[in-house]
Amino acid sequence: MRLNTRLRAALTAADEDQIVYDITGIEDTYDALTGELPGVRVRFAMKACPVGAVLEALSGRGAGFDTAGPNEIAQALAAGAPASEIHYGNTVKSDRDIADAHRLGVRDFATDSVEDVVAIAAGAPGSRVFCRLATAGTGALWGLSRKNGCSAADAVRVLETARASGLTPSGLSVHVGSQQMTARAWQDAFDTLAWVLTELRHRAIHLDHVNLGGGLPALGYHDLGGVALHPPMDEIFSAIRAGMRRLRAIAPIGFVIEPGRHLVADHGAVRAHVVRLTTRRQLTGDTESWLYLSCGKFNGLYEMDQVQYRLVFPGHLGGDQVAAYVAGPTCDSDDTFSKGRARILVPRAVTSGDPVWILSSGAYSTSYTTLGFNGFAPLPVRFARDGARCPVDV
Ligand SMILES: *Cc1c(COP(=O)(O)O)cnc(C)c1O
């Protein structure tokens, strides 16, 4: 993946640490997605990037929002989305959360248990509920655990309970796992969806939509060994289109998708700086080079255990390199890129204060940032977009 000119210009102009979002890039990816999946409504999974200007841009393009609780609902409303385009996608919610969401105007709730359905019927009477189906998560960098979703047979029982409780059983949802790298996972999800949809029709429960969840990948990550991940986007989109045709042949339903990472990851980049490159002899007797950066696990790069971000040292293109372990600035040994298992080639000549760009770091960055662990403050957020005055000549 190439670094686009908007991000490059903003990173070049940055004279202090920050995270930059390319708003135009996010809008373009949104448009490309709706082009790949015509007629599918997009509800951005807010936790991937709960940044006002990003939410406003997506809302302006027609996106709604997948939210996890009243605070995200309030933020989505503030970004301009109507309550009808916001759903409560978290299966975990207290009575108070349900009542607050209802008061804010939300009428679409995810669920996966009879207990939760009973609570929704009490706190948000007459609302619409969609049942989340569990998936294996195979093929994803972050396969989801057993925390959310129920079996196909359970889903039938849950939606029957919803109907009996005066709620509208409105849909089914899945999440194939975050950064899902295979089309196969989607095919498997459609198998389960087809079974449940058919079973529900036998019970005269007629849903109006299927929510395809998140999981669409970012394009610009490397694996922990430094090899570029190449998600098979064409295959994935073909599998989704084929699956939708299959479900439409069972019942006249609409589709929703909840991308998070896919819309923002490649359009955010961190400008950090080099703290120091050191060489130390370990207890094992091995001599190791360590490059410490001003940004790490606790101030923007929480996901550094699973992916290797591409690093660019703009002052040192070409030149001698050294294989170094790379780590963030805190005293926590978890704050080490790739769990300290893989070394990364870095310029031998870097010195303290040199800028470094950390690419494809736009997803789950601001949201996973600590308030200032060890005193390292969250990164200021900046924006690049078409039409903005370009401060330097690139
Ligand atoms: C986190 C989440 C998403 C987004 O997942 P990505 O892998 O970032 O696309 C979508 N839906 C739900 C319910 C989620 O919890």
From TrEMBL:
Modification N6-(pyridoxal phosphate)lysine, positions: K47
GO process terms (BP): putrescine biosynthetic process from arginine, via ornithine
Statement: the UniProt record of this protein carries the keyword Lyase: yes
Entry-linked InterPro entries: Ala_racemase/Decarboxylase_C, De-COase2_N, De-COase2_pyr-phos_BS, Orn/DAP/Arg_de-COase, Orn_de-COase, PLP-binding_barrel
Pfam families linked to this entry: Orn_Arg_deC_N
UniProt keyword annotations, A-Z: Decarboxylase, Lyase, Pyridoxal phosphate
Pathway: Amine and polyamine biosynthesis; putrescine biosynthesis via L-ornithine pathway; putrescine from L-ornithine: step 1/1
Enzyme Commission number, as recorded: 4.1.1.17
SUPFAM superfamilies according to UniProt: Alanine racemase C-terminal domain-like, PLP-binding barrel
An annotated Gene Ontology molecular function: ornithine decarboxylase activity
Catalytic reaction list: L-ornithine + H(+) = putrescine + CO2
Catalytic residues in the record: C331 (proton donor)
Top-level taxon of the source organism: Bacteria
Annotated Gene Ontology cellular component terms: cytoplasm
Needed co-factor(s): pyridoxal 5'-phosphate
The family this protein is said to belong to: Belongs to the Orn/Lys/Arg decarboxylase class-II family.
Name of the molecule in the record: ornithine decarboxylase
Organism of this sequence: Lentzea aerocolonigenes
